[in-house]
Write a structure and sequence with these properties.
The structure is a homodimer of 658-residue chains. Chain A has 22 helices and 11 strands. Chain A is an alpha+beta fold. In chain A, strands 1, 2, 3, 5, 6 and 9 form a 6-stranded mixed β-sheet that branches. In chain A, helix 8 packs antiparallel against helix 12 and helix 9 packs across helix 18.
């Protein structure tokens, strides 16, 4: 039975939830396929995540391996293939709680970086799991700066082998998933040396564990890097190499080859490969970043209509906490952001598909823009969504702090996305570099890529809004965002030039502008996200009330951004204080409007109870029962392990006299 | 041997580290006592926290009980007493990793709320640990709103007993520490009923476990609430009461008594008791909130001068990451905030000591102000410090994400401080209510408490700064903060009045202003923190360079607040865009100045390696060695537990054919 405080929220939905779900999925057929996959996975007890919050790192790892192995069977049984329409839903249905993800990266890197001969040899072995692969790039001492990697691979002409070493402790490979305990092979990135000359970083296939008994191969030291904030199910590992010899054929050689005599040959274009690396940043957004925020919103919003605390009006029943303006102000902007980023993700996916087609036609013109967009949006979305999940967690008070709420693990997992696949600050600075370059080009009348043409049109106008309703006009707020992005970019470009002209060296000047460059890059992405949301709303079906509620969310997303960062819009007088007060008024009004549809808006995400794995967020809203029942199953609910040794002697005063 | 990249940072300190340490401790004698306590605790292997990151919840709990029991011996052995000068350093030296903290709360509540007879009976039992106490207030359904608690205590005149019940699932006590597995007794807060009439919440001593064998008493259901984001060492518990009868004498009756015939008598003044509850909020700031931020700063800053990544200048060695402006901008404001809040904590302690004296003299005038300050600062400091620890964690990239860095557990622990002892938003609204009331009074020419007299002097001036150096003048920035606090309070007061005058009901009007009321309360606390820091610097010894570096930190704290919240200062034209650019310039300049002393400034916090418990933050900066050595001891560094069952059959293809 559904908690009446929750079911009443559903009876007044202003739109059709099922249609919104289909819209998010990309059609009713997609919804059907997704639900079928989820049903198949969740009804299989091997994939259960029910005990996850009680398990140790060892137990989590073992379960993840069991699931990975079982998944092979399941796919065969269900007739799912890697190219089938179901495939993309499997990982999501498992909530990523499965091993051998790096095995897939291992295979992809061979496919992309390997010669045809290498592909023919290794891919079948990997596909049949006769080997288990990992991907060893990051070292103790180097993550972001790949050129600084210290592992070496020296070519020995005499034996036609590469000799691999991690010559210093900081050169030790550190973090690669599946490597700590599972992998038999890995792709090691190392500085290639031939006849004493360094040719830079290259990939090498290295066997690390015996295929017979899984013992470490000669010269290999490897193990698990120990406990982390999350990802207990993954055996992130370390790897030391001491004079490990591998045959010449093990250097992945689609783009570079070492001939038997030691001649180094570079062949083909690596650009498609760089592009592949860029797309990884985009591909992770959906499952690793958006899904956690959408789940957190679902949990926190459902809880906030079930939890009653204190009274809004004297003499009345205690109020649902979502009826408090402060609670709305915490949660509803996160909900709006989840939709905004869902739509920008669609936009990026489409752009990258187009880019891929162009690049296959050997047209590399889009690469810089795609790189800038993928870097910037990876940083902005991961940062925003991580903050959003944390807000949802805190907004649930004490119960949000229990692992059983599901929120702590969503937070500790999404937090990692701010760090992996490029640290966010570094990525934003790459976007900023592109912006500055394009701004200079545009100022000089040269053509620039589509996403930055707006930089050319520096306007010094003022915001034309006359009353608070004007701020519900997407043209008004989109232009405001554009204005800020242009201002921050042009001001920072000017500061940079001033510094250089005053004699500061170029790299010093750049460093002295980086705090502001980061702001400019964020403003650029924020502008595009707002513009894209507004355009998406424009194109939506006008039936079923969906366009209307999406328009409200778009307005909220835009106005929340202004309200939270008023200085950027006030700075040069683009907006006046009076206009900012209108923004605030419109923004606060919107909270009360969207609050009415808050539960239907998270219902539309269509998460099952099992996928939320939360005592606070279940569809039926029976929060307290679930917390109690679940807690009783905790391994801490046995007789105190300290009783005989400490509590009993203490209470009975048989402890050695103090 | 100290990493040369770290030791070089110490050679150029602009001030005497040891003198700053003494200043923070309150004198060299205090430093000596503190170090002696730390040394005694850390040299005792029973208190070791070395394995903490590897332990399960059960193991953590057992260790915490062991430490609590051992601490009794240790104190006796060392001659430490609860009233001695060492006492306040013990908990800090243990990093709070010890059981029976609620036993102390149990004792304090009896001392404060109990009659002399009750104190005489229960306190000796508790002191000798013949019983172990807990404190059962929070329920599944109620935390903040105490009046809403649902547990009942019905007086039965016939038997002279109270009959206690948790009549609904939401009435179940939930969260009390030490109650899940350890406590034999607890103080239960319940609605008192006599002859069918409710007299509100009262405290009752209830035995929950047998003193013979620790089994649950009749009518009691209790256990552990399961896994949380941190505090694995504490057995937070649940408690169901079913017709549990306790004698009339077990109601704590210093302020209220039930006579044998059921007559309810209220006696004495509870105000000193309310004051006690208020001071708890202040007393937790030092150990639970400031210490974690100071530790996080120590770890992140030391790591940032040891970690080298990428090149600032082409052709040079890779740069220390603290030399990047963006890294400085992440960490140094947190360092400045740690000092700012350290000093405001001193201010609050002193104020509360004065308040205590006044209240003992039956002068309760200071209570509203003290309540407003303790609420507001508890919220502002916990929020700021939690965000600061998170920034430190993220600023360490991948290594910050390892539990071995120490940062994740600092974060997950400090996060709880935003929730317990009053949820922050609720607390800020209590401060705001005081501000609005005082503002109205001041506007009407009535006297107001000292901390808010500034509200009376609404000035409509403009910031007089003419160049960026003017913003290093404390008068300039303190006044700016004051201006913003006044503006936000007065504007919100005006909005509130407008709404009420336009016919909106008072409680609705209040709710519609709460987002802005929270802003006003934060601005008030921020202003006081800046003013207090500036005044503290004023009074410092001018020798040994300490005043100078503290002045820089004070400037940074103030300017960072403006830089991060420019809109508040630009809104009504108090500052111009040109002035804001000066703020930015001065702020960024300061980063480079303070960066030089960053390591000495964290060294002055004087944390030992054992207390940091971090592979990144040790005094010698041997980061990579420590990570590697520590990881090798992880329980995940055994043969894969999945090998025989899953990996071997998979690799050897003996899994049942797919």
């Amino acid at each position: 039975s559904v908690n009446p405080d929750l079911s009443s929220e559903r009876q007044t939905a202003s739109f059709c939830v099922e249609r919104l779900t289909a819209l998010l999925d990309g059609g009713t057929e997609q919804t059907r396929i997704r639900r079928a996959v989820v049903e198949a996975i969740e009804s299989d007890p091997v994939f259960s995540r029910e005990n996850q919050y009680f398990q140790t790192q060892n137990e989590r790892y073992e379960a993840a391996v069991r699931k990975a192995v079982h998944l092979q069977k399941k796919m065969h049984e269900m007739g799912w293939t890697e190219n089938g329409p179901e495939y993309k839903y499997i990982y999501r249905a498992l909530s990523g709680d499965v091993a051998f993800l790096l095995h897939r990266v291992f295979m992809r890197s061979i496919s992309v970086l390997g010669s045809d001969k290498q592909i023919a040899k290794w891919i079948p072995l990997a596909t049949q799991h006769k080997i288990i692969g990992s991907y060893a790039q990051t070292e103790l001492g180097h993550g972001t700066y790949l050129q600084g990697l210290e592992t070496t691979a020296v070519f020995d002409t005499a034996t036609q082998e590469f000799i691999l070493n991690t010559p210093k402790i900081s050169a030790m490979k550190w973090w690669p998933g599946d490597m700590g305990r599972s992998a038999t092979h890995t792709v090691v990135f190392a500085q290639l040396y031939i006849h004493g000359k360094c040719y830079g970083i290259h990939p090498f296939i290295v066997q690390i564990r015996s295929l017979r008994d899984h013992s470490l191969c000669p010269g290999i030291t490897a193990g698990d890097i120990g406990p982390k904030m999350n990802f207990e199910h993954i055996d992130n590992g370390y790897l030391l190499l001491k004079n490990v010899r591998i045959p010449r054929e093990n250097m992945l050689s689609k783009f570079c080859e070492v001939r038997p005599d030691g001649t180094y040959v570079r062949q083909g274009s690596q650009q498609i490969n760089y592009f592949t690396m860029t797309t990884v940043r985009i591909s992770l957004i959906s499952d690793e970043v958006l899904t956690p925020l959408m789940k957190a919103c679902t949990i926190a919003i459902r809880y906030s209509v079930v939890r009653r605390q204190s009274k809004l009006k004297p003499g009345e029943q205690e109020a649902k906490i979502l009826d408090y303006q402060t609670q709305q102000e915490k949660l509803l902007p996160q909900l709006a952001a989840a939709y905004a980023f869902y739509f920008i993700n669609d936009y990026l996916q489409e752009l990258f598909n187009r880019g891929y087609t162009e690049i296959q036609r050997k047209n590399f013109d889009m690469l810089p823009e795609l790189h800038a967009l993928s870097s910037g949006f990876k940083a902005v979305i991961t940062q925003h969504c991580t903050a959003g999940v944390e807000i949802c967690l805190r907004a649930c008070g004490g119960h949000g702090y229990s692992l059983l709420s599901g929120l702590p693990s969503l937070y500790t997992k999404i937090l990692a996305s701010c760090i992996y696949e490029g640290e966010n600050t570094i990525l934003l600075l790459q976007t900023a570099r592109f912006l500055i370059k394009c701004f200079m080009a545009a100022s000089a009348g040269q053509p620039v890529p589509p996403s930055v043409t707006y930089l050319a049109a520096v306007k010094h106008g003022k915001c034309p809004a006359k009353n608070k309703l004007d701020f519900l006009n997407p043209d008004i707020y989109t232009e405001a965002y554009q204005h800020v992005a242009v201002r921050l970019t042009s001001h920072t470009a000017a500061k940079l030039q001033d510094l250089i002209q005053s004699g500061v060296k170029k790299h010093d000047a750049w460093n002295q502008c980086t705090v502001q460059l980061v702001q400019a890059a964020k403003a650029h992405c924020h502008y595009i996200a707002v513009k894209n949301f507004a355009e998406t709303v424009e194109k939506l079906e006008t039936k079923a009330g969906i366009q209307k509620i999406m328009k409200h969310l778009c307005d909220l997303f835009a106005l929340h951004g202004i309200f939270s960062n008023t200085g950027a819009f006030l700075h040069d007088g683009y907006m006046s204080a009076a206009q900012m007060d209108m923004v605030t008024a419109s923004y606060l009004d919107l909270l009360a409007v969207i609050r009415k549809d808050a539960v239907p808006l998270v219902d539309a995400f269509d998460f099952t109870d099992k996928s939320l794995n939360s005592a606070l967020g279940s569809y039926d809203g029976q929060v307290y029962q679930r917390l109690y029942e679940w807690a009783q199953r905790s391994p801490t609910n046995q007789m105190s392990p300290a009783y005989d040794k400490y509590l009993k002697p203490l209470l009975h005063n048989t402890l050695s006299k103090l």
